[in-house]
Write a structure and sequence with these properties.
The complex is a heterodimer of chains A (228) and B (812). Chain A has helices at 44-51, 74-84, 100-110, 115-128, 144-156, 174-189, 201-204, and strands spanning 2-12, 17-28, 33-37, 59-64, 67-68, 85-88, 162-166, 193-197, 209-214, 217-223. Chain A is an alpha/beta fold and 228 residues long. In chain A, the strands form two sheets. Chain A has a six-stranded mixed sheet with strand order 6-7-8-3-9-10, with helices on both faces. With 812 residues, chain B is an alpha+beta fold. The relative contact order of chain B is 0.11. Chain B has three domains: 2-41 and 281-449 and 681-811, no CATH class; 56-264, no CATH class; 463-678, no CATH class.
């Protein structure tokens, strides 16, 4: 599903040049649950952003479902993004001015799903996430765990083939963290490919492969024990 | 989707209440003033267009080239209309039109009343509708048509049809039978009538010569051209015809008759004013410009606040992009927000305009109405769309362009220097505009105060003036009667201790368009002219006009009837050294100069002081002049100087005495100082509107400044905390926060000053006498802007500078 060839991402500020991805090569197959680990500043989040097409690489190639993405325009990337990808962030990134229902509904507005279908799909997901009773609340009125469940619902509402999760449990207590991991695992079991950045070994092991990064490169790739 | 945009926009409005209030208030005020100015401009531009044939109606003008001088007039010779009508098949109809200042007798009272004399075709050419009575009224010499207003005034609720109204025409009281009542002319009609009588009545007071004369002007002539007739072609066919008519006095091409479209009359200042009043064509543009700039200030507020809030909006943009929004969709969303704010602004603007309309009508001297007619709806629609697009343009185009990753991290919103410079430019632009407006207001007010307080060379206060009105009667008789009445008036008022003196003259100070006498100077072979006025021996002392040389008129010398007093301009014009005892130039050389005065301002300060001859008896002077013209009628005017104190009672005393000495006359008085103020009415109107606009502009700019400073300070909270921890005092924090604005105001004042100087130099050129542009007005404008800006900013900065450092640091 995903293949990168010598992927480079350099951040340029006034006087400092930082290489976040350094000729990174990686392959992820459909249906995998890959956890990306590494120390702060090693390039994990950059990798996730490039894979998620919300940032473009400086050089190298990035193939998503056999299509080279790295040099597509923002419009082209946006088009692929909205039909294939779902994002879950550490800080949830819900829109404060929209209710729970509206936040989850949002991606379907951009893919022009009919109103009745939208309503049915959002309700189905909110029921599944056990948050239906909060449908008319605003994000600030929810706990962190609830907010992350809404964010996950939003990420999967358009049936994405790939979910990119950037430390999805980073702001949650263990109970809520476990709940989110349970949902992601279930989604993976249902066939969704997941790439998750995490600092937690515990969370990483919910996946079936762990990639460790250092200075913008993949240093090790291990299958999780149960998949050995 | 659109619903989602509106929902987000609405919730954003509610979330940032302070900013929404600033935006909507600014927009509302800007749109409110735009609505008022739109009504004003729409009214000015709509003049005379309501006539269904307005595109075919033209007013004739004449331009005579005579011995090096050009005489340009939109009042035309008497025979022009009938000659055109009889000889040009391309004309459907012509209308001649003139007015007389008449008197109306009603229930024993006499009132002054303008009466319009029009040809019967007036009713066919113009769309003034008869409400009741006969449309053939104007074919009967002694029939009259009343406007609804004058019908009510003279006959109350009774039908006036068939009843008589007594008008004074040609010095005779004449009965006119009311044959019809017509609708009042609309406010946007150049022709404003109350009583119409047939044009035939002009024969009662015009001489046979006047009715044949091509070098005298007395009436306005309108032509209705045939459908499809090109006016330029028509003018070409008229030229040879006119050449023949005036061949005795003019070579071909020296006497030109042209035609001006009816709808062009009101705002065309290139053609001299005729009988109907005209406006200043520049004012609609100046006022539209000011209104649009004020609206632009409100749009800038919207933009600067959007930039200021872009940090908090950036996350939302990122999320929308990550979930699939395209750039056009984000642009559309920002524009929806702008349009929602503008919509609220339009509603507020309508309310503000509605409530301030009576006040605006007062300062603009108009009768505007705010009603939902198609032009207002279209105008409002235009304001809504343009303002929405302009206000939303920056957020829509720039914020939508953030890369998703930058937007999510907020880097896009904070990291760029270009954004700070755009903000500086925009706020700077607001300062420039504010300073320009303050300077203009300052200079205009200074000029208006100069006009009011300038020593005019005479004492204008506490003098009332009223005319002896007899229209059309011979001047000799009018003046004989006038002098007798004055003698009686003076005699009766002599015992009244509140009356300081009276005089009689052919023009009153405060009126313009005094008699001008022209002749061909045979030595220099050129046309020359000077102004002339008849005065009595009381006029100069009463008006406190000093005799510089020689003496005043005196009854003791019979020869004074052949004497004149002249002003300095006359001395300079004719290079008269030691003028006393000398004669006036030919053909006025019967007159000897008795005395001289200084150059008192007998016309408005727009014009230089022209040569003036004051005579004891001007009729021989008029007879000697080959050319004469006077916009102000040369009938007797009485001036009465009164003591301060109980003015009302004094005026009542004068009125009662007037009724005794001139029972057939109305008592229509005015104060000379008020008449003088009226000469500057147009400028007073403009300077007042600009003054109010400046206050409004400053307020809107400050609203924006208040908002933007709050946002800036919220972004600098951490820096404030660190500075305080490092030892900065509250006052040093305050000056640090204000310094940027002060620098910006200084630079803005530098840019604004030459712009304002240029605009005001142009404006002051309208006045022959005007103030100099003083440097202190520029400094004052900068100080006012800086003070107001600092007050707006200090609301936020004082609080921030006093906060405990730990609170500032905790916000990060």
């Amino acid at each position: 599903m995903i293949r990168t060839v010598n992927l480079v991402k350099v951040y340029q500020t006034d006087e400092v040049e930082t290489t976040a991805l350094n000729e990174l090569n990686l392959e992820i197959k459909e249906g995998e649950f890959v956890s990306v680990m590494g120390p702060s500043g090693c390039g994990k989040s950059t990798l996730l952003n490039v894979l998620g097409m919300i940032d473009s690489p400086t050089s190298g190639e990035y193939y998503f479902m056999n299509q080279e993405i790295g040099h597509l325009s923002e419009r082209g990337r946006s088009n692929i993004r909205k039909h294939n990808l779902g994002f879950v962030f550490q800080s949830f990134n819900l829109i404060d001015e929209l209710t729970v229902f509206e936040n989850v509904e949002l991606p379907m507005l951009y893919t022009k799903v009919a109103a009745n279908d939208r309503k049915a799909r959002v309700e189905e997901l909110l029921e599944g996430m056990n948050i239906m009773h909060r449908r008319n609340h605003f994000p600030q009125q929810l706990s962190g765990g609830q907010q992350q469940r809404v964010a996950v619902a939003r990420a999967i509402v358009n049936h994405p083939k790939l979910i990119l999760a950037d430390e999805p449990t980073g702001n949650l207590d263990s109970t809520n963290g476990n709940e989110v991991m349970r949902i992601l695992t279930k989604l993976n079991e249902e066939g969704t490919t997941i790439v998750m950045v995490t600092h937690s070994q515990y969370c990483a092991e919910f996946g079936n492969r762990i990639i460790r990064m250092l200075d913008g490169k993949v240093v090790t790739e291990n299958l999780v024990k149960q998949y050995l | 989707m659109f619903k989602n945009y509106l929902k987000t926009a609405w919730r954003n409005l509610l979330k940032g209440k302070t900013y929404s209030v600033i935006n909507i208030t600014g927009m509302g005020m800007g749109i409110g003033i735009c609505i008022l100015i739109f009504l004003f401009v729409n009214d000015e531009w709509s003049f005379d267009k309501f006539h269904s044939k307005s595109d075919r109606i033209y007013r004739a003008w004449v331009k005579e080239h005579f011995k090096g001088d050009i005489f340009f007039n939109s009042i035309t010779p008497y025979p022009l209309g009938s000659e055109l009508n009889d000889n040009f098949p391309s004309i459907e109809q012509t209308v001649r039109y003139t007015t007389i200042n008449s008197l109306v007798k009603k229930n024993g009272n006499v009132e002054e009343q303008d009466v319009h004399l029009v040809e019967p075709s007036f009713l066919d050419v113009f769309d003034f509708n008869i409400l009741s009575g006969s449309s053939s009224t104007l074919e009967e010499k002694h029939h009259a048509i009343l406007s609804t207003k004058s019908a009510k005034k003279y006959f109350g609720d009774d039908s006036p049809l068939g009843k008589n109204i007594v008008l004074q025409v040609a010095g005779e009281w004449t009965d006119f039978t009311v044959g019809a009542v017509m609708e009042d002319p609309p406010f946007n009609s150049s022709i404003q009538y109350e009583i119409l009588i047939p044009f035939e009545n002009t024969t009662s007071y015009m001489s046979e010569f006047g009715m044949q004369c091509w070098t005298c002007v007395s009436v306005e002539t309108y032509v209705l051209l045939n459908q499809g007739q090109d006016v330029d072609e028509f003018e070409k066919t008229v030229a040879p015809f006119i050449d023949k008519k005036v061949a005795r006095d003019y070579k071909p091409g020296e006497y030109i008759v042209g035609f001006q479209p009816l709808a062009d009359i009101h705002l065309n200042n290139d053609i001299p004013q005729g009988i109907v009043a005209v406006s200043d064509s520049r004012y609609p543009y100046i006022l539209s410009g000011v209104a649009l700039l004020i609206l632009l200030l409100a749009c800038i507020n919207f933009t600067t606040l959007a930039i200021g809030r872009s940090v908090s909006r950036s996350k939302e943009i990122g999320v929308r992009k990550v979930t699939g929004a395209t750039r056009p969709q984000i642009m559309f969303q920002f524009w929806s927000e702008a349009f929602l704010t503008v919509f609220a602004g339009v509603l507020l603007g309508i309310i503000l305009a509605k409530f301030s309309l009576p006040f605006f009508n007062q300062i603009a001297d108009k009768n505007l109405l705010l009603s939902p007619n198609p032009s207002i709806v279209m105008g409002l629609g235009g304001i809504f769309i343009i303002t929405g697009i302009v206000a939303g343009i920056y957020p829509a185009l720039v914020l939508s362009g953030y890369k998703p990753i930058h937007a999510l991290k907020g880097i896009a919103a904070t990291g760029k220097k270009s954004k700070a410079s755009i903000l500086t430019w925009l706020v700077g632009f607001q300062f420039v505009l504010s300073v320009v407006l303050i300077i203009c207001t300052g200079i205009m007010q200074t000029q208006m105060s100069y006009l009011q307080n300038k020593n005019l060379g005479f004492e204008k206060s506490q003098v009332i003036t009223f005319p002896y009105n007899v229209s059309g009667e011979g001047l000799v008789k009018v003046w004989e009667d006038g002098n007798k009445i004055h003698a009686r008036l003076k005699d009766r008022l002599a015992s009244n201790s509140s009356i300081l003196g009276t005089s009689i003259s052919s023009h009153a100070l405060g009126s313009v368009g005094w008699l001008s006498l022209g002749y061909t100077d045979k030595v220099q072979n050129k046309f020359r002219n000077f102004n002339a006025i008849q005065v009595d021996e009381n006029f100069l002392p009463l008006m406190e006009i000093d005799i510089v040389d020689g003496r005043n008129f005196s009854k003791e010398f019979d020869t004074d009837e052949k004497g004149v007093i002249i002003n300095q301009a006359m001395i300079s014009e004719y290079n008269l050294e030691n003028p006393i005892g000398k004669l006036l130039p030919e053909p006025f050389n019967d007159y000897k100069i008795l005395g001289t005065t200084g150059d008192f301002h007998f016309s408005s300060l727009h014009n230089p002081v022209d040569p003036l001859v004051m005579s004891y008896d001007m009729l021989p002077l008029i007879r000697a002049a080959p050319d004469m013209g006077s916009m102000d009628p040369i009938n007797p005017k009485f001036s009465v100087k009164v003591k301060g104190g109980n003015l009302q009672r004094t005026i009542r005393d004068i009125q009662n005495t007037w009724k005794e000495v001139a029972p057939d006359q109305s008592f229509t008085y005015s104060f000379i100082d008020n008449d003088i103020d009226m000469l500057y009415r147009k400028e007073t109107k403009l300077s007042n509107i600009i003054g109010y606009a400046t206050v409004l502009a400053l307020f809107i700019a400050c609203l924006g400044l208040f908002g933007i400073s709050a946002l800036k300070i919220s972004h600098k909270t951490k820096e404030i905390g660190i500075r305080k921890v490092l030892g900065a005092s509250s006052s040093s924090i305050l000056s640090w926060l204000s310094m940027d604005y002060l620098k910006l105001i200084f630079i803005s004042a530098m840019i604004a000053s030459p712009l304002a100087w240029y605009a005001m130099t142009k404006w002051l050129q309208d006045f022959e006498f005007h103030v100099g542009i003083s440097w202190w007005i520029f400094v004052m404008a900068a100080i006012v802007t800086a003070s107001v800006a600092l007050i707006a900013v200090s609301f936020q900065s004082v609080r921030a500078s006093r906060a405990n450092p730990v609170e500032s640091l905790r916000t990060e």
